[in-house]
Amino acid sequence: DGGITQSPKYLFRKEGQNVTLSCEQNLNHDAMYWYRQDPGQGLRLIYYSQIVNDFQKGDIAEGYSVSREKKESFPLTVTSAQTNPTAFYLCASSYRGVGETQYFGPGTRLLVL
Amino acid sequence: AQSVTQLGSHVSVSEGALVLLRCNYSSSVPPYLFWYVQYPNQGLQLLLKYTTGATLVKGINGFEAEFKKSETSFHLTKPSAHMSDAAEYFCAVIISGTYKYIFGTGTRLKVLA
């Protein structure tokens, strides 16, 4: 079955630690996205990538980094510079084109110890 | 700038009653509009989308939405609520000329027995 997988489901970060969230898709989508979800704030775009080896900052990129070495994978690293990382992180993907639907993974909940 | 406003962060309806979730958008050009549903600790699932053509859009699980350009609205409705409809619902619009979505802050639907 085609879809988007995110791992782990829960992730715990210690102070000063970098952690990496995984996102993999087998939908043959060119575009991939990372969102952060906080209660009452909807979804905010962290980074997005339209093609391999290229990505752009979204609205809240500070304290985060990404890579796009393969079409299927778009990992997100939450660095120690992100001082309030506790949130639900959602990965999405879509075909490139105007009006294309974004499809979402099941999410990763990041908690700080 | 484009934006999305969802009126009412929490909506309660009785089982079997009409569901109406409100979404207004601002856009200088014809928009692409989406409704997504999110169950607790899960990703977002597409309910329906409007691109062009017929203004009444039917989606999954008996939901539909009507695009009203004069009112800049895209309200979501369902004639008869079911307990399984309890979830959070997000309206989204695509920023013209990009692949980026703007999400509303969400409406949590509670269905009362």
Spatial gap, N to C terminus of chain B? 41 Å
Largest sheet of chain B: 6 strands, mixed
Mean of residue pLDDT values of chain A = 93
Number of strands of chain A: 11
Helix- and strand-based class of chain B? mainly beta
Average pLDDT of chain B, rounded to a whole number, is 92
Largest pleated sheet of chain A: 7 strands, mixed
- Percent of sequence in beta strands of chain A: over 45%
> What is the number of helices of chain B?
0
Question: Nearest-angstrom radius of gyration of chain B?
Answer: 13 Å
Please tally the β strands of chain B and state the result: 11
Which structural class do you get from the secondary structure elements of chain A? mainly beta
Terminal Cα span of chain A: 35 Å
What is the tally of helical segments of chain A? 0
- What would you call the shape of chain B? globular
Shape of chain A: globular
List the helices and strands and how they pair.
The complex is a heterodimer of chains A (113) and B (113).
Chain A: E1 4-7, E2 10-13, E3 19-25, E4 31-37, E5 43-51, E6 54-57, E7 64-66, E8 76-78, E9 87-94, E10 103-104, E11 108-112
Parallel strand pairs in A: 2-11
Antiparallel strand pairs in A: 1-3, 3-8, 4-5, 4-9, 5-6, 7-8, 9-10, 9-11
Chain B: E1 3-7, E2 10-14, E3 19-26, E4 33-38, E5 44-50, E6 56-58, E7 64-68, E8 73-78, E9 87-94, E10 101-103, E11 107-112
Parallel strand pairs in B: 2-11
Antiparallel strand pairs in B: 1-3, 3-8, 4-5, 4-9, 6-7, 7-8, 9-10, 9-11
